[in-house]
UniProtKB/TrEMBL annotation:
UniProt-listed InterPro entries: KR_dom, NAD(P)-bd_dom_sf, Sc_DH/Rdtase_CS, SDR_fam
Family: Belongs to the short-chain dehydrogenases/reductases (SDR) family.
Keyword Oxidoreductase on entry: yes
Taxonomic lineage: Bacteria, Bacillati, Actinomycetota, Actinomycetes, Micromonosporales
GO molecular function: oxidoreductase activity, acting on the CH-OH group of donors, NAD or NADP as acceptor
Organism: Micromonospora inaquosa
The protein, known as: Oxidoreductase
Length: 245
C-alpha cells in the first residue's frame, strides 16, 4: 500500500511509548510510512525494527519538541526526503501533577514547554508546507483534562485547555488543511510515571491501571480521522473507557 494513493507520510512526536508508539503500529499496519520522533532514540530504533519486521515502512529521528530547531529539522527533514508531509500527530506530552501551593515551578514550565509550546512548534513547522501543497492534516492530542479542572491538575489542565483552543482556532482558519483534536481520558501509558507529587502520581497510576483504556484504542481513533476523505474533517474526538464513566 505504501505506493498507493491511500498511503501517507505521517510524522508522530512522542512516539517512543504509549499513544505515540501505538499510533505508529496502527498506521504502519494500515500501510502508511511513519516518521517517528522522540528523545529516547533507542526505543525508537527498536520500534522501527519491529514495524519493518511486520512489513511496514518506518524511520526514526531524535526529537526534542521544546526546541524549535529540533522540530523544524524533524518536519522539514521528512519533507525533503519524501517530498511531502501529509499528517503531523502532535502527541508528545508530560503530566506532573501537584497542588499549586507545592510551587513545583520547574514542572509547570516543563508542561508548558512540552504540551503547549511543543504543539505550537509542530504547527509552525508543518503548516507552511501543507499550505503550499493545499492539503494536509494536523492532529493534536489533547485530553479530557481540556474540559474539566481537577485539584492537583491545574497547570496540566491549563496546557490542555490551551491545546484545545489553538486547535479550534487553526481549524477555523483552515479551508484546505484538516485539523483534529483527540482527547483521551485515562489511558495505559507512561504519562503518569514521572514528575509531580509522589502520592498524587501513585493515585493517578492506580486509577489509570483500573480505569484506563489501551493506547491502541486512541490509535484507532487517530486512524479513523486520517482515513476520512480529504473533504471530511473529524474536528474533535473525546474518548474514555466505559469504566471511567
Amino acid at each position: 500500500m505504501e505506493n498507493s494513493a491511500d498511503s501517507k507520510i505521517i510524522l508522530i512526536t512522542g512516539s517512543s511509548s504509549g499513544i505515540g508508539a501505538a499510533t505508529a503500529r496502527r498506521l504502519a499496519a494500515d500501510g502508511h510510512h511513519v516518521v517517528l520522533g522522540a528523545r529516547r532514540v533507542d526505543r525508537l530504533a527498536a520500534l522501527v525494527d519491529e514495524l519493518r519486521a511486520a512489513g511496514g515502512t518506518a524511520e526514526h529521528h531524535e526529537l526534542d519538541v521544546t526546541s524549535r530547531d529540533s522540530v523544524l529539522s524533524f518536519v522539514e527533514g521528512a519533507h525533503k526526503r519524501h517530498g511531502r508531509v501529509d499528517v503531523l500527530v502532535n502527541n508528545a506530552g508530560v503530566m506532573a501533577l501537584s497542588t499549586l501551593d507545592a510551587l513545583r515551578v520547574d514542572e509547570w514550565d516543563q508542561m508548558i514547554e512540552v504540551n503547549l509550546r511543543g504543539t505550537l512548534y509542530g504547527v509552525a513547522a508543518a503548516l507552511p508546507l501543507m499550505r503550499a501543497r493545499g492539503t494536509g492534516h494536523i492532529i493534536n492530542i489533547g485530553s479530557t483534562a481540556a474540559y474539566r479542572v481537577d485539584p492537583t491538575a491545574a497547570v496540566y489542565c491549563a496546557t490542555k485547555y490551551a491545546v484545545r483552543a489553538l486547535t479550534e482556532g487553526l481549524r477555523q482558519e483552515s479551508r484546505d488543511i484538516r485539523v483534529t483534536l483527540v482527547s483521551p481520558g485515562y489511558t495505559h501509558s507512561e504519562l503518569a510515571e514521572r514528575g509531580g507529587d509522589p502520592a498524587v502520581r501513585a493515585a493517578v497510576q492506580a486509577a489509570a491501571e483500573a480505569l484506563g483504556m489501551p493506547a491502541s484504542a486512541v490509535a484507532d481513533a487517530i486512524a479513523h480521522a486520517i482515513a476520512q476523505p480529504d473533504g471530511v474533517d473529524v474536528n474533535e474526538i473525546i474518548m474514555r473507557s466505559t469504566a471511567q464513566g
